[in-house]
Amino acid sequence: MTKDIGGVPEEKEFKEVDSEFPAYPPDSGLLEFYPRQKSQNRFYVDPNTLSIGPDRVIRYSLVVKSPSGALTVSYEGLRCKTSEYKLYGFGVTAGEWTRSRNSEWHPVPKTAGDFRFALYKDYFCDLEAIAGRNERDLIANLAGNPLNNVTDKNR
Predict the structure, then answer these.
(1) Is the CB of residue 124 less than 8 Å from the CB of residue 134?
(2) pTM for this model (two decimals)
(3) Most exposed residue of 28, 37, 63, 117, measured as fewest CB within 10 angstroms of its CB?
(4) Does domain 31-148 sit in CATH 2.40.128?
(5) Do residues 136 and 50 touch, judged by C-beta distance below 8 A?
(6) pLDDT digits 0-9 by tens, 55-67
(7) Residues of the chain above pLDDT 70, percent
(8) What whole-number distance in Å separates Cα of residue 4 and Cα of residue 57?
(9) Radius of gyration, alpha carbons of the chain
(10) 76 - beta bridge partners?
(11) Which runs of consecutive H residues, i.e. helices, occur in the chain?
């Protein structure tokens, strides 16, 4: 768990640290979160994989479950300072990971129905800063009602 790093935006040039894939997300214990628009899919973050790196990238395993039960599992990173996300890899059969072919940073789509926008705006970021001092705060944001989060000042 990261020490208290506060919500101060990055001040130095960005240098991404190497990251390894975490353990594959379990079937239980995932935290559900909600995009701003209704979706038939359900969205989850594995709290055991949520981390804030020394590069100030929030990394997490994401699980998207369709109404038919199909799962899409990914390991992603989010930069609050630049409103960008990165796909490190995808979950494949037997609980294994495969690296993403496109390892570039992409702008977080600014649409209410996009789940990454919800993570950025409602759970993980406060303007250009991380919306909490450590992983525990981000887990609390996910577990609570985002509309009542006191850390979110950019509504």
Answers:
(1) no
(2) 0.84
(3) 28
(4) yes
(5) no
(6) 999 999 999 999 9
(7) 85
(8) 15
(9) 15
(10) 60, 87
(11) 115-118, 135-143
